[in-house]
Amino acid sequence: MTIPISPADRVFVLTGAGISAESGLPTFRDSDGLWAGYRIEDVCTPEAWQRDPAAVWAFYSARRAAGKKAQPNPAHLALVELERALNLRDGGRFLLCTQNVDDLHERAGSVNLIHMHGELAKSRCERECGAEPVEDHAVYASLDEVGRCACGGRLRPHIVFFGEMPLEMDRIQREIARCTLMVVVGTSGSVYPAANFVHWARFEGARRVYIGPERPLNADAFTHVVEGKAGQVLPGFFHVEG
Ligand code: APR
Questions:
Q1: Which of 191, 196, 210, 211 to mutate to test the pocket of ligand 1 (most atoms within 8 A of CB)?
Q2: pLDDT tens digits along 92-121
């Protein structure tokens, strides 16, 4: 199966942990996923950070160590090719929004990219004092190694914890409102608001394609569900016309 993309199409892509699975990074909710070995409330909530920042940093330091070893796979590269085919110069016909905090999309070459759940390779002030997130690739062995902001606040991972607002939602909503094709790859459809994006696109009348080995929870909202691994389905999947 291929998906035709006409000169009139605007494409919004949403990716989840499944797109990085073939790079060797575990997903969250598969049987061998991260949430089988950790409890969300211990490592990924504002309360966990207040209670035990060392445990939170240990979790994200381990994610950083794993992320450094991973390389982009054919699915990441296929999305770069699609972005280039849709004209990088105007930058307006393609947007990639990822829930992933790894940097495999940008290392593959994606440019018009939103990390709605934050980025592993950055840290920011725990006090939300207004300082910008800083690049930080460190794998911390203990909390004593973690730096502080100029205001005195401890640096925390630049990650959207459960209960916090995802990043760049205004831009995401605007882009979904004008897309004509939504492509969703490798996400179980269990975390909101991302699981709702397909419903917003349906409201706008856009085509809606899901790619992944299993049907997501929100499968019924898609016009096409392609069951397969992203690295096998995505290369050659799009036929850009004109
Ligand atoms: N190709 C495509 N999809 C795959 C592949 C693959 N090779 N392997 C697994 N998948 C699919 C699974 O079938 C599953 O539907 O990827 C999906 C992963 O789902 P989750 O583990 O729930 O990950 P995700 O949907 O990205 O999680 C959303 O939850 O805890 C959080 O903040 C974290 O951003 C994350 C959010």
A1: 191
A2: 799 999 999 999 999 999 999 999 999 999
CA distance 105 to 71: 10
Q: What pTM was computed for the model?
A: 0.97
For residues 236 and 172, what is the distance between their CA atoms, to the nearest angstrom? 26
Nearest CA to ligand 1 atom 35: 99
pLDDT in tens, 119-150: 999 999 999 999 999 999 999 999 999 999 99
CB 187 within 8 Å of CB 18: yes
Annotation marks residue 224 as catalytic: no
Instruction: At 8, give phi and psi (nearest 5°).
Output: -85, -10
The CA distance from 93 to 9, in Å, is 7
Does any ligand 1 atom lie closer than 6 A to the CB of residue 119? no
Ligand 1 pocket, residue 64 CB under 6 Å: no
Q: Is the peptide bond before 53 cis (omega within 30 degrees of 0)?
A: no
Pocket flag, ligand 1, residue 191 (CB < 6 Å): yes
The full set of domains in the chain, from first to last, is: 1-24+72-117+166-242 (3.40.50.1220), 26-69+123-159 (3.30.1600.10)
